[in-house]
Amino acid sequence: xxxxxxxxxKEALEMEDREPQLSxxxxxxxxxxxxxxxxxxxxxxxxFDVTIASEEIEAMDTLQELLDKIKANQS
Length: 75
What we know:
4 helices, mainly alpha, 75 residues
């Protein structure tokens, strides 16, 4: 699941120069903006069948927190 999640992050944020890590603070990415947040929300819904509100994402800091939220919503 982690590999699929990180691949989704890389694709949604159109990251070409690096590989995302779970410890990354994703809001510090140069690619992070309101459009990428909406893209990520749509991709998470499509790929993992979870709905995460924009406000929930904004309250998170790391990709690990986001992955943990996905896992909790799938249970």
